[in-house]
Model the fold of this input.
Amino acid sequence: MVDKKYIALGVLAVALVLLYRDKASVPAYFSINDINSKGQPVPDEYRANAAELVKNLNIIQDELYKINPSYKINFTSTYRTPEHNASAGGVNNSRHLTAQAADFKVDGLDAQLVQKIVKRLVDGGKIKAGGVGEGESFTHYDIRGYKTSWTYTNGSGSGTTSSEWKSSQNQNRVIPVATKETAFYNDIDV
Ligand SMILES: [Zn+2]
Done:
């Protein structure tokens, strides 16, 4: 006969594990199907890239959600076929060609703030280090594996790159810490 005390302890342990697992996991806001070139799916050779990109995009979306549940990523460009990339004015070695990059907007949030939030996630080791393209109205994020950022000139992808953030002088600006219950939009430092 097992003591009721041990049964209760067992139930508690299972509950704690489930609770922890729930807190540690990030919801699947996006799937690999969201990475496509005007509806054309990512070819097999780049599926692993797309899966890794999605994993990081889910973390970005979760952070935005925790700042304000209304902040939703809307993709303007993800994977691009060579033809699509050429028509979009992408550079020849664009990470979009290998399903390692996404351009997106967040309704209600200035792109400049989105870019800071993405960089903060990289700096905090929450998402993979990569490129952050600082568009006026959109953000480019890619999973190249090292930090770099640039601005766009003449609407195309040209700009300067380095092994650090281009806008490093802005990194000390305060961006609010996300909590699920509170909307911080009015407190965000523009
Ligand atoms: Zn891009």
